[in-house]
C-alpha cells in the first residue's frame, strides 16, 4: 500500500485547496421584467428565458 514518506505541510495543503472556496452566484437582470436572478435560468418572476416565454405565469 502506498504511504506518504513525509507529512503534507499546511502551506502545501492550503495551496491545493485554494480553488475549493465557495464563489458567489452570478446574478443578472431579466431582459423582460428587470428582476434580478441567477444567470442561465428561467426567470422565476415572468418565466422568460433566451428570448421567449417558457413558463406561463399568473398575472393579477
TrEMBL record:
<keyword id="KW-0689">Ribosomal protein</keyword>
<protein>
    <recommendedName>
        <fullName>Large ribosomal subunit protein bL32</fullName>
    </recommendedName>
</protein>
<dbReference type="InterPro" id="IPR002677">
    <property type="entry name" value="Ribosomal_bL32"/>
</dbReference>
<dbReference type="GO" id="GO:0015934">
    <property type="term" value="C:large ribosomal subunit"/>
</dbReference>
<dbReference type="GO" id="GO:0006412">
    <property type="term" value="P:translation"/>
</dbReference>
<dbReference type="InterPro" id="IPR044957">
    <property type="entry name" value="Ribosomal_bL32_bact"/>
</dbReference>
<comment type="similarity">
    <text>Belongs to the bacterial ribosomal protein bL32 family.</text>
</comment>
<keyword id="KW-0687">Ribonucleoprotein</keyword>
<dbReference type="GO" id="GO:0003735">
    <property type="term" value="F:structural constituent of ribosome"/>
</dbReference>
<dbReference type="InterPro" id="IPR011332">
    <property type="entry name" value="Ribosomal_zn-bd"/>
</dbReference>
<dbReference type="Pfam" id="PF01783">
    <property type="entry name" value="Ribosomal_L32p"/>
</dbReference>
<feature type="region of interest" description="Disordered">
    <location>
        <begin position="1"/>
        <end position="20"/>
    </location>
</feature>
